[in-house]
Fold this sequence. Notes:
Elements: E1 2-10, H1 23-35, E2 40-45, H2 53-73, E3 81-85, H3 103-109, E4 111-118
Amino acid sequence: EKFVEKALVLFDLNKHRVEKSYFDELDQLAYTLKKNPSATLYIGAHADAQGTSEYNLRLSNRRAAELQKYFVAKGIATSRIEAIGFGEELLLNQCSDGVECHESEHQYNRRAEIKVQMPED
Length: 121
């Protein structure tokens, strides 16, 4: 499968609400999905390492679900969406448990990676 479009959404600490500033970008992905009925959407949501790993897994699942709900509201069938929460498993930097990090470094890990996938021809 090849990715035709992707977006990165960052979240506030302990939050799963998608900020309005991302709506235009997400709407563009929804438009691409509508134009390409065979395309699917992949949502991988993540948390930083603050808090317990169990809590972060639940939080990232809520982030994934929130984004899925957004696309369903835009008319994309649930069957076309794969939404997964990874908790704090896939940090993009050194900010794991017990490591002193600046807030901006933690925020980098509080993200959802969203990709529109086209089937291979």
